[in-house]
Amino acid sequence: MPNKLVEVKNLKKHFAVGRGKVLKAVNDISFDVYEGETLGLVGESGCGKSTTGRTIIRLYEATEGEVFFNGENVHKISGKKIKDFNRKMQMIFQDPYASLNPRMKVEDIIAEGMDIHGIYKGEKRRERVFELLETVGLNKEHATRFPHEFSGGQRQRIGIARALAVDPEFIIADEPISALDVSIQAQVVNLLKELQKEHGLTYLFIAHDLSMVKHISDRIGVMYLGAMMELADSEDLYAEPLHPYTKALLSSIPLPDPDIEESRERIILSGDVPSPISPPSGCPFRTRCPEAMETCAVKNPEWLEARPNHFVACHLYDPNLHKE
Amino acid sequence: MSETLLEINDLAVSFSTQGGEVQAVRGVSFAVAPGETVAIVGESGCGKSVTAQSIMRLVPEPPGRIKHGSIHLNGKDLAALSDKQMRSVRGKQIGMIFQDPMTSLNPTLTVGDQLTEGILTHENISKSEAEKKAVELLNLVGIANPQERLKLYPHQFSGGMRQRIMIAMALMCKPSLLIADEPTTALDVTIQAQIIDLFKEIQEKTGVAIIIITHDLGVVAQIADRINVMYAGEIVESGTVKEIFYKPQHPYTRGLLTSVPRLDGDRSQPLIPIAGTPPDLFSPPEGCAFTSRCKYAMEVCRAYDPAVTHLSDRHFTKCWLQDERAEKPF
Ligand SMILES: Nc1ncnc2c1ncn2[C@@H]1O[C@H](COP(=O)(O)OP(=O)(O)O)[C@@H](O)[C@H]1O
Ligand SMILES: Nc1ncnc2c1ncn2[C@@H]1O[C@H](COP(=O)(O)OP(=O)(O)O)[C@@H](O)[C@H]1O
Ligand SMILES: [Mg+2]
Ligand SMILES: [Mg+2]
């Protein structure tokens, strides 16, 4: 078994949203990320994917629960170790327009982290920037330009170069390709895969495009309304989804194949995702679940290993519930 | 199908901007038959929305200008209509749906008021009859408790619900053509599935023809009868859904198809992207606009615009590889 690089334990992130109301953006989720793997995180907008990523990298304080990086509790790190941690864990953002400072030259954007951490100084700095530009498929002439002179795909490449600049071990990519055209998405995804191989990187890849997540991830976690519903090897998840939500999600994805589409039976969920301010009792998915039972309104399902390495939170798979 | 609902001929649209003339649409021709669904696909900036705006005569002029070409709806030349006549065409014969329903809903009016007001401007009926119709429309688009919902304001609905309301508005006067510009792009997949289902259902019930603009090839495979693939302001390939998905002839179409992973695909196979980015439309290159990104580009592609080659009665492509002297790479 490979080494656990990141361990997320019963993580909660709640936001106060006025009038004493609390929005439970992430509500008690646990998972591990193994060294060298890509863990995909999927789910519909608002289900808590970004908040999970941001809490792991300490952009947010956790409301409850812990995150361990290389065995160290990240929300308790102090002193000199903070800087080290900040270097090893990097984030790539969705919006290649908003995430780059428009007044900075590309070389300074890429080198910002290197400057903060005091690595690659003087002549080395420039060399390193050129090398990174080349790594992400740009060239050294681009170093002195400003972000607005680049296309969306190129800006995302700059964002990737910036993340790579400080030799990270773990990269959280939050919808890194969602704003790009399909032809350009494929370029960026191929690049991320190559970089992973070359540098032994570990990824948390957040996205809502399940076909792309499956393509890039070794394992996939499915979130709904702040909770983790299912987690499995990506092949297993697609071949044998257990949770009714995962099944519906998979069957909603239109396939680029008209013959298959002609005869495909899909599960169309009714209604919308409930508000995370007043989520349903019991299982968060029960209001839209085609297989909901009485228990589902009463009891929150436990996180079970229903098959080897295949976890699910659903009463349908609770052995104690079906014993009688 | 010999009948034609909409016919576009050699349409060209430009915008004058500080940087110069943007040639957004460069000679587009296609037809839509009653009741069929035609998809327009292509990367952002290739002229899909401007094509749709031209049909509805909603291109902002200035900076936009229709340089040449004609658009006929039921045999009538839309360019010859007065603004007033055109407004009536937009309400009664062509319905429109956009990516972001909030831009076309009035945030200060209840959904009921907006619907009845719309119905009353196009039909000579009483207010209570119009209200009854509004309820029927919400029923048609699958909104439960329509009487209650009519009293709500647009912001009180979710994104998917708002899109349903937009569809209800577009269908108000039983149009013969619905133009939907990225109608599901802002929605989550489970909601997208609901909306696509709704389109199919409505088409079955009302026989409306649909032009759908989308960048999602999965959506296209699900809903379209025919596909126009646009690149840099031109249609570079057109055909039935099956012709485009299973026998794509233009290297650009092939590139779009190999860029997307398949749910049932092999993870170890890298995706095959299209290299580079689309050309800028200030000065579209001589010859074929795709040349600089094309794996199969030949000398001739740089210098001369390729001719249209017909491969079946509905399948055509604009590519030099079709020339009998060219070597066939696939
Ligand atoms: N800073 C914040 N303050 C209050 N609510 C927030 C904040 N950030 C996110 N949320 C809410 O938390 C929920 C989860 O959001 P997010 O993690 O961004 O979801 P996702 O990335 O899956 O779309 C949403 O309901 C969102 O509105
Ligand atoms: N109002 C406008 N003013 C200037 N340029 C415009 C305007 N509308 C569209 N364009 C340009 O026309 C081209 C085609 O745009 P559009 O049809 O919106 O592309 P898409 O295929 O993404 O829908 C783009 O280069 C765009 O920048
Ligand atoms: Mg997010
Ligand atoms: Mg558009």
Descriptive account of the structure:
The complex is a heterodimer of chains A (324) and B (330). Chain A folds into two domains: 4-217, 3-Layer(aba) Sandwich (Rossmann fold), CATH 3.40.50; 234-324, no CATH class. In chain A, 32% of the residues lie in helices and 23% in strands. Chain A has helices spanning 49-56, 80-88, 106-116, 123-135, 152-164, 182-199, 210-216, 234-239, 244-252, 258-263, 294-298; strands at 4-16, 22-34, 38-42, 64-69, 72-73, 89-92, 170-174, 202-206, 219-224, 227-233, 304-307, 310-312. Chain A is globular and about 70 Å long. Chain B folds into two domains: 6-93 and 178-186 and 205-322, P-loop containing nucleotide triphosphate hydrolases (Rossmann fold), CATH 3.40.50.300; 102-174, no CATH class. Chain B has helices at residues 48-55, 83-92, 111-122, 127-140, 146-149, 159-171, 189-206, 217-223, 241-246, 251-259, 299-303, and strands at 6-17, 20-32, 37-41, 64-73, 76-77, 94-97, 177-181, 209-213, 226-231, 234-240, 308-310, 316-318. Classes of the chains: A alpha/beta (324), B alpha/beta (330). Bound molecules: adenosine-5'-diphosphate (ADP) (2 copies) and magnesium ion (2 copies). The site of one adenosine-5'-diphosphate has 13 residues of chain A, from strand 2 and helix 1.
